[in-house]
Recover the amino acids of this structure.
């Protein structure tokens, strides 16, 4: 499982580097996004990945990796929004936003390590397409919880679903990286 931790960190570093660069380009304009808007952004990314997996013709020259990175970063932004609430205007410096990104990434990695231990790294035997489907399922769950104004009777909350999406997307990126090395 140590190898998983190293692979996980490598994917997360790529995501963090892009997040940090976009913060320098755009600032924290994303802070005005309500949770359903972030959920919809993630949904668009997941549906595009599914289309790339199912369709032989691709008209945009970006692969699954960039979309999985988007899922990871938007999910971490959503976790920040849950913690801070929605802002009326950009209100975070790059340094503060990256520190919050790291905080939620660390918590999400800890969750992955706990589940990975209990599930015996079962994700390693899964297909990328199955991980994509699980992300879409989580998105549909989040949309339902949002429609219920955040209330659940017996289910985990929105934050846990965003964390699972981060972890599934990172697992998919690890698979894609391993498959490109073997090819």
């Amino acid at each position: 499982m140590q190898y998983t931790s190293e692979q996980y960190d490598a994917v997360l570093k790529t995501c963090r580097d892009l997040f940090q660069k976009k913060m320098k380009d755009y600032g924290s304009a994303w802070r005005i996004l309500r949770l359903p808007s972030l959920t919809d952004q993630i949904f668009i990314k997941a549906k595009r990945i599914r289309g790339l997996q199912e369709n032989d013709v691709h008209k945009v020259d970006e692969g699954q990796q960039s979309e999985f990175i988007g899922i990871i970063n938007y999910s971490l932004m959503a976790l920040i929004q849950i913690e801070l609430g929605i802002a009326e205007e950009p209100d975070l410096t790059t340094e503060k936003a990256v520190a919050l990104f790291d905080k939620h990434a660390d918590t999400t990695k800890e969750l992955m390590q706990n589940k990975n231990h209990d599930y015996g790294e079962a994700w390693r035997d899964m297909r990328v397409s199955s991980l994509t489907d699980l992300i879409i399922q989580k998105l549909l769950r989040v949309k339902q919880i949002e429609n219920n104004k955040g209330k659940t009777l017996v289910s985990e909350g929105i934050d846990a679903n965003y964390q699972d999406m981060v972890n599934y997307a990172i697992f998919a990126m690890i698979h894609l990286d391993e498959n490109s090395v073997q090819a």
